[in-house]
Every structure is written in structure tokens, then in C-alpha cells.
Amino acid sequence: MQAWGRPLSPVRDLDDVARRYPGRRLTLEGERAPLEFYSRPGEPNAFSMDSLEFFFLIAQYFREALPLRMILLLIACQRAGGRIHLTQDEMATVLDVSRTKATETLQVIMSHGIVFKVKRGCYQFNPPFSYRVAEFIPGTETAGGKPEYRRVEQYETISEIRKDATLPELVRFPSLEHMRRAIEELREERAAQRAARRAVRAMRREEGTEQ
Predict the structure, then answer these.
(1) Domain CATH number, residue 162
(2) For 102-108, what is the mean pLDDT?
(3) Among candidate residues 167, 90, 75, the one with its CA nearest the CA of residue 127
């Protein structure tokens, strides 16, 4: 009777239930289906691996919205293997800015080794920062056969990039340390500017008091 009077709480996690009743054995009548995000080894869904440290640093470094918006656009448009098939005109159209502005912003992003140009209208995301591991090829499910998937292992792409001696060192061996140093320099510069403004205001107050 006491149990019927207690409010029911939904089961959100079987691990929590197991910890609550350590002496009980929990069983399921049927086999749980694999999560759709991971899918089956031979048929991966489209998903990316993104560096949270990378997101954290670019949020601090890029103080204007456009570079961050462009990076998100590049992440969203990358294919399996990290390739991005976008022209600068298309980037400008999607972001609703001039082509000149889009080109300048892309150059800034590329200067940090985040992406690099493969050929006209084709760029490559640096795998340690963001990488599209696999993708489903649209349209193949309607051909009457088995849907097609494409998967490219991250380490394979990294190996290919490192073998290309024509690429900049920052692309072949990416590091966010230079961006960390730049963030500290920007903070020191802004702190000096704030201190200078405070000094000017204090001087003006003193002059006003003397008058």
C-alpha cells in the first residue's frame, strides 16, 4: 500500500536503477538495437569528431562573429575525409557577406592551419580540429540495392597530410599553442588599453577638481 502511494519516477538510465538496487539482477526481454549515431561498422552514419579544445580556443580568439560563422559553415559542409567543396562565392552567399569579406575571413582561418586549400573550390579541414569520419551517400537507397556509405579513417588522412612536404608546417603538424599565445597577447594589450583609459579619466577628474 505504501508503494502505491509513492509517485512514479520514469526510468531514464538503467545504470541508475542498477546502482539503486545492487542486489537485483536487471534483464531485458529483447536485445537493444545499436544507437543510430554509431550504426554498424560497415554502414556508418554521417558524423563528425570535433575537438572541444579547438572550439574553446576559437571562441576566445575570434572576437568577431564572421570567422566563427565561417568555421561552423566549413564543419557543416565537410564530406567524409574532411574535404569541403565550396567556392568562396558560395561561402559569401550563405554567410550573406561580400566575396571580399568572405575571402579575407577565409585567409585568416587558413593562416592558423584550421583548413587549407586543395584546389579551386575544394578545401581540407585539419583532422585534429574537426573531421567527418563517414557519410551516407544520398540517393543510393532508392536504386533498389544496398545503400552506400563512405568511411575514411582519421589517421589515414593525417598520414597523407604529413607526407605532403609542400604544405605549411602548421598544417602538417597542427598546434593550438600559437593561438593560446595570441590570446594572452590580446588580453595583455586590452588590459593596457583599459589602464590607459582609466589614467586619462583620473587625470581629467583631477584637472576638473583643481579648476
Answers:
(1) 1.10.10.10
(2) 96
(3) 75
